[in-house]
Amino acid sequence: MTNPLKRERIAEGTHFNRISDPRFKFNRIVFGFFVPLDKEKASLYALIPRLFHRTNAEYPKSKDFNNYLASLYNAKVDFEVASIGDTQFLGISMNFMDDSYALHGEKITEAASYALFNCVFNQPVADGNAFDNANVELCKREQIEAIEAEINDKRVYASNQARRIICEGEPAAINPLGTVEKTREITPESLLKAAVELFSNAVFEIICVGCNDFDSALKIAKEYFPAEQFDGRKTLPCESVYSPLKKTVSEKIEKLPVLNQSKVVLGFKTDSKNRAALTLMSNLYGGTLSSKLFLNVRERLSLCYYCWSRLSKEKGVMSVVCGVEEENIEKAREEIISQLELIKTGDITADELNSALLFEQNNIKTVNDSLSSLTWWYISRIYAGEIKSPEQFLKNYEGITSRDIIEAADSMRLDTIYVLSGEEKCVGDDISLQEENE
After folding, report:
1. What is the pTM of this model?
2. pLDDT tens digits for 104-125?
3. Which of 333, 363, 421, 430 minimizes the number of CB atoms within 10 Å of its CB?
4. Which CATH number fits domain 6-230: 1.10.510.10, 3.60.15.10, 3.30.830.10, 1.10.10.10?
């Protein structure tokens, strides 16, 4: 079994990656930056792809750039900001139709690639020392709104608040969008300075996915990465370390003015490096509709509206998230811990283990179904230093036994308990069971 990914080093800290699959009719190119999460720089760095995806020097106005993209059979440019463990990922992407479907033989891949690289490398600069003030202010406003909007989804808000406590003092606790205060401080001059710094220190990964061979995109990439300019770069190491267990369990209760349904997050930490076993254990514990948390805490005991576990492989953290009535918080917490203890004692059936494995196999096999999921698969594999195709990665789960699951569960230690509850109830604020699980 061969890996469809073709990977080539084109400059210091820069690789060009491509996956060609004839099933697709469209193509996607992502220009990605990897940098360590830093609370002083996160806001600045996050604003860069938000600004860069709007214009380039050839089309300094968003309206003109959008019209040009429309002429490329409605090509789309977008941006992404995310955290992977202790690392901040910034991406600018281009989605476009393949050349083979062009009505008049247009070279869409070449044109789209040039447009993307121009967005990254050729931004309009005022007087050589600042970005356009109006564009910067617009992007700042959008970023502030995105940061402030987190609280509108209480499940997301609770999970993120819990992560910040679980990984307190570590880069992983930093919001990849930064903070409202730091975003407000950004000026066109400071943003240009940050962009120059980012290009000096970031690890670059260019990922191309689609039906094209991307030869023209590779040629263009090499034009933008001349050896004499980039081979002297000193990139910052981008890696994640397991989060250390706290000496005592952290407990925090946060109250909001109006919240009818409480959210509880339990954070567990491990020192086990058997990630395949940890993944299946988390699935068996709370990752599927046949998991112990779903069947017992939610269904049998009716203690919560939803209850699931998630594993952060980069940090060695498993989080259990549930929505619960305030009077059931203690009961739900006790039962969540109790179900993990049952796994530790070997209370695992063959059907449970098989369901956990089938769930993970299905997740991995469906990676190939979309350009976006396939792109993110290889971004995560490149970051992990284990560049395998989904088919190759499936072999990691062969031979995982109940004993491995027990050892993975036994390695988990409770680290953090976070509760989000309301100060008062509001009529009409109830969320139905069906809505919570959609």
Report:
1. 0.93
2. 999 999 999 999 999 999 998 8
3. 430
4. 3.30.830.10
